[in-house]
Amino acid sequence: MIRIKELLTGAGVLSIEGTTELEIGKICFDSRQVTPGSLFAAVRGTSADGHQFVQKAAETGAVAIVCEEYPAVMQDGVTYIKVENSAEALGVIASNFYGNPSDKLRLTGVTGTNGKTTVATLLFRLFEELGYKAGLISTVENYIHNTVVPSTHTTPDPISLNQLLAEMVDAGCDYCFMEVSSHAVVQHRISGLKFAGGVFTNLTHDHLDFHKTFRAYLEAKKGFFDGLGKDAFALVNADDKNGAVMLQNTGAWQKTYALKNMGDFKAKIIENELSGLLLDIEGQEVWFKLVGSFNAYNLLAVYGTALLLEQDKAKVLTVLSRLTGAEGRFDYVIAPSGIMGIVDFAHTPDAVQNVLSTIHDIRKGTEQVITIIGCGGDRDKTKRPVMAQVACDWSDKVILTSDNPRSEDPQEIIREMEAGISPENKRKALTITDRREAIKTACHFAKPGDIILLAGKGHEKYQEIKGVKYPFDDKKILIEQLYQNS
Ligand SMILES: CC(=O)N[C@H]1[C@@H](OP(=O)(O)OP(=O)(O)OC[C@H]2O[C@@H](n3ccc(=O)[nH]c3=O)[C@H](O)[C@@H]2O)O[C@H](CO)[C@@H](O)[C@@H]1O[C@H](C)C(=O)N[C@@H](C)C(=O)N[C@H](CCC(=O)O)C(=O)O
Ligand SMILES: Nc1ncnc2c1ncn2[C@@H]1O[C@H](COP(=O)(O)OP(=O)(O)OP(=O)(O)O)[C@@H](O)[C@H]1O
Ligand SMILES: N[C@H](CCC[C@H](N)C(=O)O)C(=O)O
Ligand SMILES: [Mg+2]
Questions:
Q1: With contact defined as beta carbons under 8 Å apart, do 452 and 341 qualify?
Q2: pLDDT attached to residue 486
Q3: What is the residue with the minimal CA distance to atom 6 of ligand 1?
Q4: Is 456 annotated as a binding residue?
Q5: Residue 115 confidence (pLDDT)
Q6: The domain 2-97 is classified under which CATH number: 3.40.1390.10, 1.10.1740.10, 1.10.3470.10, 1.10.260.40?
Q7: Whole-angstrom distance, CA of residue 53 vs CA of residue 32
Q8: N or C end of the chain: which has fewer CB within 10 A?
Q9: 71 is in an annotated binding site
């Protein structure tokens, strides 16, 4: 239990109606979760406005309401707290409620369009292997040292986030590595957190459904770096044209990594094969198990971060060379028939191009590349035609199929993908709406030596159709089919 006044430190309070001496047992931003003694924050969202539920929250027992405007009717015994921005205040209140856990950990945030899960996961595993207790907050799963906590978002809401961080502190963790999505920055999910550092991977096309313009998407990512303190480091990819933009208004200590341009941390790709990458990192040649030139960037980002967190260079490289990638990221099997199947989470045009150009670089020459690809429903529609065209440009055969259609009509999503395919690429594309059938067909088509890329869903264990998540595991189905045909 904690008193209202202690929760409000740093929350940007404009005015208060009622006492701040009351004790609060729970904080929430969803009126349906209010229980007697709760604080309810009314947040303006994308489809509703939390202010509509203030009355209901008070009736259900909320004793404190955080809002941007007072309701017409204020109830006795309830304290109303007016703030400039409820979502931002909620982040600070959540931190205070859980004892400001980010002050007690060295928290590093990773942002960018692609590579966040890979970099954050590698950092987590690296620090665990170096002998520390660490935490991970990621798209695939969260970890409190060796306890797994299922993940619902790339970056959770501020209450779940601070609760996770507090559990990490209780478990004795020294470090936490987390993904920072652009949604999280705009929705203030990270407000009130103290970061030891921030890492930028890259910026390409995604989430324009939410941010509307590329500029707004860029500003969201930049917002994370603008908010870092002067004791924190900001490590950016100097080969990405937006790397420098991220640093424009940050008060943090600025560092860069690069393969091509000048950078504080430099690497060169010596070999890029199916068995891994041979990199020259600051004069030292090291083999890594991760595949593909984009992973050279991810590895260098991890290396730079570890050094900025004062780790020993030789130990970092030794451990890093033993680590494998995150689940569902260039996750491959070679069937007895000699057909290679790759499951990858590529769900942006840039990621699709990267994974296919990697396959192109490492294949021996004569094999066919068959790509199975769909696009998520209720997500950025503008990436659909581009992803289909990129897949065709880089493959011998493409099967257009469903990803997570969510509330949309799967056929319509596929039609939008088809619209992006140029006349000369049309002959390569085939549509099979049912994802399982698409996988079966690809395995049937493939000959020994051929490569099947199953893009878009990576680690996901479900397919979301009209609000229902049906069990679906790309890797499991692909393996079943590959072995059946062997
Ligand atoms: C579009 C979006 O990002 N929505 C997120 C947002 O919800 P919202 O604020 O828009 O919700 P809303 O429905 O408009 O409701 C507004 C407010 O009214 C409240 N409410 C609503 C109904 C009611 O009866 N009572 C009540 O109090 C809601 O709790 C909310 O506070 O804030 C919620 C709490 O943080 C999130 O759970 C929710 O994520 C939805 C489920 C989602 O799908 N988000 C995806 C797009 C997302 O966040 N993705 C990113 C990036 C992915 C990546 O690239 O890796 C991520 O970080 O996961
Ligand atoms: N540094 C990188 N540059 C470009 N593409 C990458 C990079 N790292 C990974 N990818 C590609 O992007 C896909 C997603 O990678 P990862 O899950 O690490 O990114 P993410 O930023 O966490 O994605 P999301 O925002 O959806 O959670 C991978 O499966 C791979 O195809
Ligand atoms: N975190 C990303 C994942 C997309 C994965 C893809 N399978 C899809 O459903 O679009 C998002 O929510 O946009
Ligand atoms: Mg991720």
A1: yes
A2: 62
A3: 45
A4: yes
A5: 96
A6: 3.40.1390.10
A7: 9
A8: N
A9: no
Q: Which atom of ligand 2 is nearest to the CA of 352?
A: 31
Read off the pLDDT of residues 34-88 as tens digits, 9 standing for 90 and up: 999 999 999 999 999 999 999 999 999 999 999 999 999 999 999 999 999 999 9
Count of residues in the chain: 486
What is the CB < 6 Å shell around ligand 3?
A: 139, 154, 347, 376, 379, 403-404, 456-457, 460
Listed in sequence order, the residues at least 6 apart from 318 whose beta carbon sits closer than 8 Å to its beta carbon are: none
Helix (H) or strand (E) holding 14: strand 13-17
329 annotated as a binding-site residue: no
- The predicted pLDDT at position 485 comes to 62
Beta carbon of 364 within 6 Å of any ligand 1 atom: no
Closest Cα to atom 12, ligand 3: which residue? 379
The pair of three-digit structure tokens given for residue 327, joined into one six-digit string: 């689940």
CB–CB of 135/105 below 8 Å?
yes
Ligand 1 site, residue 154, Cβ cutoff 6 A: yes
Alpha-carbon distance of 438 to 49, in angstroms, equals 41
Protein residues whose CB sits closer than 6 Å to any atom of ligand 2: 114-118, 139, 154, 179, 201-202, 294, 297-298, 326, 329, 344-346, 350-351, 354-355, 458
Give the pLDDT of residue 121: 98
379 is in an annotated binding site: yes
Strand, coil or helix: 110: strand
How far apart CA 478 and CA 432 sit, in angstroms, is 16
Q: Which ligand is nearest the CA of 190, by number?
A: 1
385 is in an annotated binding site: no
110 C-alpha to center of ligand 2: Å?
A: 12
Positions of the chain with pLDDT lower than 50, given as ranges: none
Q: Which CATH number fits domain 331-485: 3.40.50.300, 1.10.10.60, 3.90.190.20, 3.30.70.100?
A: 3.90.190.20
Out of 3.30.200.120, 3.40.1190.10, 3.50.50.60, 3.30.565.10, the CATH code matching 100-322 is: 3.40.1190.10
Q: How far apart are CA 433 and CA 103, in angstroms?
A: 49
Global pTM value: 0.94
